Amino acid sequence: ALLVNESSVQLAWEKPTFNGVLQGYQLEKSLDHKNWQKLGQDVITNETYTDNIVGFETKYYYRVRAIDYE
């Protein structure tokens, strides 16, 4: 993660290698690693996302899932 300013952080991840067709990603954020909040639109289509709602000196956890066409 890259701190953009006191209220924004830019996240980046690598595209997975698999045999399916990638639709995009689902990104979630949590303060406690238990209660997750979905970020962005339904499917994020690139490998970066800027979270513009972060608190200064607040620790967040993020997780990203690849979504393929079924």
Would you kindly provide a written description of the structure presented here, covering whatever features stand out?
The chain is mostly beta strands and 70 residues long. The protein is 0% helix and 54% strand. The strands form two sheets. It has a three-stranded antiparallel beta sheet with strand order 1-2-5, with no helix packed on it. A three-stranded antiparallel beta sheet has the order 4-3-6, with no helix packed on it. β1 and β2 form a beta hairpin. It is elongated, with a radius of gyration of 13 Å. The N and C termini lie far apart (30 Å).
Brief account:
This protein is mostly beta strands and 70 residues long. It has strands spanning 2-5, 8-12, 22-30, 37-44, 48-51, 61-68.
Arithmetic mean pLDDT: 88
Structure annotation, total helices: 0
The beta-strand count equals 6
Low-confidence stretches: none
Strand order of the largest sheet: 1-2-5
Category by helix and strand content: mainly beta
State the order of secondary-structure elements, H for helix, E for strand: EEEEEE
- Shape by Cα distribution: elongated
Q: Biggest sheet, open or closed, and with what strands and sense?
A: 3 strands, antiparallel
Q: Report the portion of residues in β strands.
A: over 45%
Helix content: under 10%
N-to-C CA distance: 30 Å
User: Radius of gyration in whole Å, from Cα?
Assistant: 13 Å
